[in-house]
Design goal:
5 helices, mainly beta, transmembrane, flat, 13% helix
Length: 509
């Protein structure tokens, strides 16, 4: 028998066991050595080890694997989803339809009139270079100055003047090829068109005065006329090699005589950038069919013009004037105010309404409109269609009937994105109205002026707001209780709206 030293016992390689150890008991006496069954003590130890989880010897049986979602859960989920969809269809759709009907029922009418807006057509011939100018003016002449002189200034500017007698009838075109911004502050001019105050003059005359800052610029600038019995054309060609030290000044005057024979002008067109265009009162001496006044950065002032079609368009400069149109009136600028007095006439026998369009931006819009349509019976279409718009500044519009006109049908839309809106109608408007403001306050009111329906004097005039709130009001105003029996195409309609300012709509009666 080998007995280990104490040092060997301390340096044993096997670390001490800190967990309980299982020791089998000594074999019982009298037990057969090759019996397949354990003795009693061993059986008890094995049973105790199976129940004790802290034992070093364990007999672990893995639990059966569990399916993430069994078939019964899938079937239940699908059934619940199907039931949810069915209930949503059965319950949700009737609620949506009912809510929609409740919201739209008081104001079910929507404007469905197809608006055949007229295309912008102008008769001016824009001059781009001298070759195009010479070919377009085959019978013309350029720089036919009657007098040429030199000013006693620091630049020794050159001045030329001419005067031509032209036909009072037919077509007129006055244009320039100046462009923005290359010619800005280099080219300036004034145009005046009106009636000759000298009653002894019986001819229509046009005069041109040009001032150039140097001799070369004077020679390179072309002032060309094309004249015939029924056409007057004036085209100004400005060279494209001008410097900021150059300057051109123009003064153009067209005067019609005060004669007993009215001048018949088929079309009158201008395109004059950087000009101030002024038109006088023509009285009964000139009859215009079409008038087109254009030019970027061109101030436009009109005392009075009457024509079938009128187009006034500029940019960065204001438009002020009084206009009378029977087919269309368009007034447009940007970043500048508009202030117009418009008289609109619509022929009941015509197939189309009379159109009005006024728009600007970043400035005030003021339009005072007089309506005249001698309807013998309620019209089968709108007499007037108007669209007024600005995106900043004050938008103010008034619509009244001419004293000789019966009530007319007008469809108006007045918009202002950021500024306030103020619209007024007289006591003869009939139709739907709607005023909207996203962040401002809406106010729709009726005055006390009285009026009768000329087509049925027994009807009483009513003001029927269907919905009233701080930001939206709509309803109907007219003779009778509602719009029953009136064609939708005939019913008047006014929509005024803004975003962050107040919106006011007033009916005089």
């Amino acid at each position: 028998m080998i007995i280990q030293d104490e040092d060997d016992l301390l340096n044993s390689k096997d670390p001490p066991v800190t967990t309980p150890a299982l020791r089998y008991p000594e074999r019982a006496a009298g037990r057969r050595p090759f019996s397949p069954l354990p003795d009693y003590e061993t059986s008890q130890a094995l049973a105790f080890n199976h129940l004790n989880n802290d034992s070093l010897i364990s007999f672990y049986k893995c639990p059966p694997k569990r399916r993430f979602v069994d078939s019964r859960s899938w079937r239940a989920g699908i059934a619940a989803l199907g039931m949810y969809i069915i209930l949503s269809i059965v319950i949700g759709i009737p609620l949506i339809v009912k809510t929609s009907q409740e919201n739209t029922k008081p104001f079910s009418y929507t404007s469905n009139y197809a608006v055949p807006w007229l295309e912008k057509i102008t008769t001016t011939h824009y001059v781009t270079n001298i070759n195009n100018l010479s070919t377009s003016l085959a019978n013309g002449s350029c720089n036919g100055w009657a007098t040429i002189g030199k000013l006693d200034d620091a630049q020794h500017s050159m001045v030329g003047q001419l005067l031509n007698t032209v036909s009072p009838d037919g077509r007129f075109s006055i244009t320039s090829n100046a462009s923005y911004p290359s010619s800005m502050n280099i080219v300036l001019g004034d145009l005046f068109v009106g009636i000759n105050p000298n009653t002894s003059v019986t001819d229509t005359t046009i005069s041109v005065q040009m001032q150039a800052s140097n001799d070369d610029l004077f020679d390179q600038t072309q002032v060309c006329f094309a004249l015939s019995n029924n056409a007057t054309g004036l085209a100004i060609y400005i060279p494209d090699n001008m410097s900021f030290n150059d300057q051109l000044l123009f003064n153009i005057t067209l005067l019609y005589p005060q004669t007993s024979i009215t001048a018949q002008v088929d079309s009158f067109a201008t395109y004059l950038p950087f000009f101030t265009q002024t038109f006088g009162d023509f009285g009964g001496y000139v009859n215009f069919e079409k008038v087109f006044i254009e030019g970027p950065v061109s101030r436009i002032f009109v005392s009075s013009i009457e024509a079938s079609e009128i187009l006034v368009e500029t940019s960065l400069e204001p438009i002020f004037g009084q206009f009378a149109a029977s087919r269309s009136l368009t007034v447009s600028t940007i970043q500048a105010p508009i202030n117009v007095n418009a008289s609109l006439f619509n022929d009941p026998d015509s197939n189309f309404p009379t159109y009005l369009e006024v728009n600007t931006g970043n400035s005030n819009l003021t339009a005072n409109v007089t309506l005249n349509a001698p309807n013998r019976s309620p019209p089968q279409r709108p007499n007037f269609i108007a669209n007024l718009r600005t995106f900043y500044g004050q938008a103010t519009a008034s619509f009244v009937h001419d004293p000789t006109s019966p009530p007319t049908a007008i469809k108006l839309r007045l918009e202002n994105d950021l500024g306030p809106v103020d619209a007024m109608f007289d006591q003869y408007f009939q139709g739907f109205f709607q005023a909207n403001a996203k962040l401002g306050t809406v106010l729709v009111t009726q005055g006390t002026a009285s009026s009768l329906d000329p087509f049925d004097a027994t009807l009483v005039r009513n003001f029927l707001p269907n919905y009233v709130s701080d930001t939206r009001t709509y309803g109907w105003i007219g003779w009778g209780l509602d719009s029953g029996g009136i064609l939708e195409e005939q019913i008047g309609e006014v929509v005024v709206e803004t975003s962050i300012a107040n919106c006011t709509l007033f009916f005089d009666g």
